[in-house]
C-alpha cells in the first residue's frame, strides 16, 4: 500500500482516527488494549516511562514510575516530536510503549532503532499492533482505498516478522499475547453475539487474535577483561616447593628416613 507523504505518520487524519475509536468496534478494541497495558506495565520499575502516540489515552496509568510522558506528533503530548527521531537522551528510558505506531509509520525500522537507543540496558518495550493473520487482517484486505478508512489502511506487520526485527536489535521477547478474537463487526449486536470467542481464543485459536502485544527487553552483552595470572602462578609454585636442605639444624628430607632406621636398629653409612 502506498504511504502518504504527510508530516505525521498516519495514513488518515487524526480526527478520523479518533472518530473510529468512538465507534463500538473502536471501544471494543480500546477496552481490551487498556486492560492489557494496565496489567503489563504495573510491575515494570524504573524512573522514566514513555508512551509514543495516542496522547488521548493514558496507557501508563497503572505504572508507578515517577516521570511519565507521551511523545506524539499530535497535540496533547508532553513532547511533540516524530517517533523516528526522538529528542531523548540515549540510555535514559526504562519503559517504552508503542501502541499501533509501527503499522502506520513510513519507517518502522527507524522507530525501533530509536527505541533501542533511548532504552537503558534491561529496559522494556511493549509493542501493540494489528495481526494480519487474523479476521482483522482479512478485513483490511477488502478495505477501500480512502485515506481516512482507519485502521484498515495500515501496513499490518506479522508477529514473526516483528520478532525478527527485535531480535536483530538485541531484544529478547519475554511475553507474547493476543486479544480481540471476535470478527471486526461494526455493529454492537454482532460483537455481543461473538463474545464467546474471547474466552476461548487463547485456548483454541490463540494465533488468530486481531491484536498482539509483544514485550521485549533490551539486552546488552557485557565484557570481562581476562588479566594474566603470572603472580598467582608463581605463588602456587612457591607453596608447592619442597623444603630446602640447610646446615643450620633445620629438618631435611633425609631426616625422617634416618629416624626410621634408628628405631629398627639398622644403620647405613651415607
Secondary-structure topology with pairs:
Elements: H1 14-21, H2 24-40, E1 48-52, E2 67-72, E3 79-80, E4 93-99, H3 108-118, E5 119-130, H4 135-141, H5 159-168, E6 171-179, H6 188-193, H7 196-204, E7 211-218, H8 230-239, H9 255-264
Parallel strand pairs: 1-2, 1-4, 2-3, 4-5
Antiparallel strand pairs: 5-7, 6-7
CATH class: Alpha Beta
Instruction: Name the strands of the widest sheet in spatial order.
Output: 3-2-1-4-5-7-6
Rg over alpha carbons = 33 Å
Mean pLDDT: 81
Main sheet summary: 7 strands, mixed
Beta fraction: 15-25%
Unreliable residue stretches: 1-12
CATH topology: Rossmann fold
List keywords for this structure.
single chain; 270 residues; alpha/beta; Rossmann fold; seven-stranded mixed beta sheet; 9 helices; 18% strand; elongated
Report on this structure.
With 270 residues, the chain is of the alpha/beta class. The protein has one domain (14-218): Vaccinia Virus protein VP39 (Rossmann fold, 3-Layer(aba) Sandwich), CATH 3.40.50.150. Helices cover 33% and strands 18% of the residues. It has 9 helices and 7 strands; from the N terminus they run H-H-E-E-E-E-H-E-H-H-E-H-H-E-H-H. A 7-stranded mixed sheet has the order 3-2-1-4-5-7-6, sandwiched between helices. Strand 4, helix 3 (108-118) and strand 5 (119-130) form a beta-alpha-beta unit. The N and C termini lie far apart (102 Å). Residues 1-12 have low confidence and may be disordered.
